[in-house]
Specification:
The complex is a heterodimer.
Chain A (H helix, E strand, L loop, with lengths): L3 E2 L4 E5 L4 E7 L4 E9 L5 E8 L4 E4 L2 E6 L4 E6 L8 E9 L6 E3 L3 E6 L1
Parallel strand pairs in A: 2-11
Antiparallel strand pairs in A: 1-3, 3-8, 4-5, 4-9, 6-7, 7-8, 9-10, 9-11
Chain B lengths: L3 E4 L2 E4 L5 E7 L5 E8 L3 E10 L2 E4 L7 E2 L9 E3 L8 E8 L9 E2 L3 E5 L1
Parallel strand pairs in B: 2-11
Antiparallel strand pairs in B: 1-3, 3-8, 4-5, 4-9, 5-6, 7-8, 9-10, 9-11
The chains are: A mainly beta, B mainly beta.
Chain lengths: ~110, ~110
């Protein structure tokens, strides 16, 4: 079964710390992997999309890496800020699944002052 | 402002009473999709549409219907809601599917079926 797992489910760090969020997937036959941010009471916001042929993508303080062979992706957040507090979700588009994304259950991040 | 809108945002209803959750996007996107989000299960896709008059089942289509008569609208219909359809629902759109394009999500509809 094609699944996506995110561990830990929750994480609390002090402001200014660099941090890494993890995402693992069960099948290396993927088309792309996407990271989203979800704020309480709001919809998801797309952060980064990595194609299967890419190793990483960067946007500002965010850097996402992809290692298909090990079935892992990491989202690196540099110099964390309280405004980064949110739930971060990764989603995988597996090859052969048309346009059906498989989502992880997310990591709830709290950045404290 | 480019956006995906959903209505209503909150809805409490009773078992068996037909309801429709509307979704509209103003970005001329070809692709639209419905998800439900439940604690511990993450987001699961209900239906998606690659274009007008083209819809396909996602992972959990049972108990739901959709239609795509116009590009901008993609309503979700629950003909006979049941308590297990209590959930947070999201509509999303993207220019041409999810292979190369990011998705834009609506704010969500919290549905409670008593």
């Amino acid at each position: 079964k094609q699944e996506v797992t995110q561990i830990p489910a929750a994480l609390s760090v002090p402001e200014g710390e660099n941090l890494v969020l993890n995402c693992s997937f069960t099948d290396s036959a993927i088309y792309n992997l996407q990271w989203f941010r979800q704020d309480p009471g709001k919809g998801l916001t797309s952060l980064l999309l990595i194609q299967s042929s890419q190793r990483e993508q960067t946007s500002g303080r965010l850097n996402a890496s992809l290692d298909k062979s090990s079935g892992r992706s990491t989202l690196y957040i540099a110099a964390s800020q309280p405004g980064d507090s949110a739930t971060y979700l990764c989603a995988v588009l597996y090859t052969g699944t048309a346009s059906k994304l498989t989502f992880g259950t997310g990591t709830r991040l709290q950045v404290t002052l | 402002e480019a956006q995906v809108t959903q209505n209503p945002r909150y809805l409490i209803t009773v078992t068996g009473k037909k309801l429709t959750v509307t979704c509209s996007q103003n970005m001329n996107h070809e692709y639209m999709s419905w998800y439900r989000q439940d604690p511990g299960l993450g987001l699961r896709q209900i239906y998606y549409s690659m274009n007008v008059e083209v819809t396909d089942k996602g992972d959990v289509p049972e108990g739901y219907k959709v239609s795509r008569k116009e590009k901008r609208n993609f309503p979700l219909i629950l003909e006979s809601p049941s308590p297990n359809q209590t959930s947070l629902y999201f509509c999303a759109s993207s220019p041409f599917g999810v292979a190369y394009n990011e998705q834009f999500f609506g704010p969500g509809t919290r549905l409670t079926v008593l």
